[in-house]
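Re: the 369-residue chain
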Amino acid sequence: MKKRIFWAGGLVMGGLLLWGCKTTCGGDEPEPPVETWKEVTVEATDYGSWTCFSFQSGESFVVPIGEVKEGVAGIYTGKLALAPSMGVPLDGQDNLTVLVNRVSADSVEVTLKDLTLAMPNTSGKPAKADGKIEPYSLTAKAKATKNGDKWMLEGTAVENTVTGGEVPFYKLKVDGFIGATLNSDIKLTCEIPPGKMPFPITGTYTARNEEREIKEITFNGQTGKYVPGSTFEADPAALEGRTWDIAFHKYDVRTNGGSVMRLESTDWNGAVLPSAEEFVPDARGVVIASMKDMLPDGKMGFQCTPLNEVLASFLTVTPTGTMPPFKYELNKNIFLVRTATDKVWKMQFSEYTYGGKALNAKFRYRELK
């Protein structure tokens, strides 16, 4: 009986020794823990809406884009005249495009697009070899209130980073009015203090809210026709009380006040948190909001809206010149999205399908910080 007990005990002890040797004495190393993530497919209509998505809840909802009569948002073309600075005349800019984007029910963003203002020793924008200024854009926020046939704008100064010069930023403040009806006047007072200057450069922007000619604007590398005075806005009521981080519109993508970085790696488990300076915020642009007037004039409706060019690089869209008109190529690099609440989420796209009026973007995601 004792021999059996000793024999069984020896087997148990031997097994424990063998197990210990396998894990600590040069045997197979334990596999690293596998990251957990969530996966979602986001659906969006081509032109008539945005699909907003929240990382925290994993839920999405649709925000329609519609044409608004006597709206404030739109694409305007006019002249910016600058007041003299310390007695020195300053050149303004003709044919300046201004984008007005509806942010909420009572506020807008105003962007002076592709400025080429040369303000020596103050602008911080170096001239090219041919003496021309590299175009840059400035954005400000304003409260928008309808007063009769005018939209009154009451501005708030916003800092804008301008790269490529000695002065890293401008501030921009915009006040004035935009006529709500066709063929009405637009007059905006712009204050632009470059860098740390104690006083601003001031200018007056004037234009007409008219619909008498079709113009062209370049967006996402393509040129489309639009009618000045036509207004397309995302429905602000659909955003009231809703939380979201990113939004999709066909292959256009934007964040909700966040910023994005694309890593060179496609290794999901190898993503690390970089410095905050490497994240790129949204820039102001336009998207196609309506194709109903495409024939016979070839004109389209546009919505002015922020866009994130880094996150939009999840897809390479190449015109084919035939049917189908575009070729889509998926980018499987890791993207990091820093939200407005300073959380960082990593995401990786695995599928993109497009047919008819439906878009499906499939990606996995998890919180990194």
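Helices lie at 2-24.
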